[in-house]
Each structure stands twice: as C-alpha cells, then as structure tokens.
Amino acid sequence: MNKKLKIVLIIFLFAIVWFYRETTFIYTNALISELQNKTGNGFKMFAGLGFLKHCDLRTLLMLKWVFTIIYVIVFWLLCLLMVKWFYNTAIHYKLTHIIYLSVPVLSFVVYTLSHLINGGQEYGYMFSRHLLGAAQSPLIAMLLISVFLIHDNKS
C-alpha cells in the first residue's frame, strides 16, 4: 500500500472511531439524563447503540467507564498502527506506549489527589475527564507526530 493511501486510511480510521466514540457518549449521557430527570421524552437511537435503551441508570454509569477504557485502547491501537505504517522503530513504539500509559496514570493521580484538597474534587474530576478525553481522540496522535518530528530532527 502506498504512503498517500495509508495517510488517507489512517485519517479515515481516526475520524470514524472518533465519531462513533462521540456518538456513544452523547447517547449514553442523554439516556442518563432521561433516567435521572425521569422525563422519558425518548429520542431516536443511533444504529448499534439500541442496547443502551434497556439499561438502568447504574448500568449506564458503569458503561461510561467501560466505554472510556475501550476507546482509550482503540485509539492507542490506532496510534500503534500509525507508528507501524510511518515510523516503525522501537523508539517510536516506546514513546507511544509511554504517552498512552502516562495519561490514565496522571488522570488517576490528579483525581485522587484532588480529593485531599478541600473543594478540589470538581477541578480534579474536570482535569481528569479532559485528559482521558484527549486519549480517546486523535489529539494524542497529533501530539505524537509532533514529538516524532522533533525527535527525528535531533537524530
């Protein structure tokens, strides 16, 4: 497969996964809101997510964590595919793993430490949520490309 086709394909894969991730969370949050507010307004469910309508509030809240873990792993794997196609060296794989392992750890540490500060829980949660959100988007791939360019120019 030529390089231009790989570039188009990796961008397409990131876009499709990101769209599906956003859709998953929008519908899950809408269902949670519906259950919490007992509105029962209903809305048309995106294809493939219909199973969520049968979940109770507790299950939906737990599924958000499961979805977070799944999408972090999927974007990590997409970054590894990007590394394989365009860089394919041990240092590039290592940098990808370091970043993807650091994000959840940093998120957990900030979230945990924020509970030790009076009034800091909300800020800790927000920061952790945004950090994990970055790991579930093409943002880290863009960061990695920049890091790789800097690293490769120094070598």
Q: Brief description of this entry?
A:
Helices cover 78% and strands 0% of the residues. It is mostly helical and 155 residues long.
Walkthrough of the structure:
This protein is mostly helical and 155 residues long. 78% of the residues lie in helices and 0% in strands. It contains 5 helices and no strands. α2 (57-86) packs antiparallel against α3 (90-114) and α3 packs antiparallel against α4. It is flat, with a radius of gyration of 18 Å. It starts with a helix and ends with a helix.
The helix-and-strand class reads mainly alpha
Average pLDDT, to the nearest integer? Answer: 92
* SSE succession: HHHHH
- Cα-atom radius of gyration: 18 Å
Helix content: over 70%
In what range is the share of β-strand residues? under 5%
Sheet with most strands: none
Number of strands: 0
Keywords:
155 residues; 0% strand; 78% helix; 5 helices; mainly alpha
Please give the structural blueprint.
Blueprint: H1 3-37, H2 57-86, H3 90-114, H4 121-135, H5 139-154
Helix pairs in contact: 1-2, 2-3, 3-4
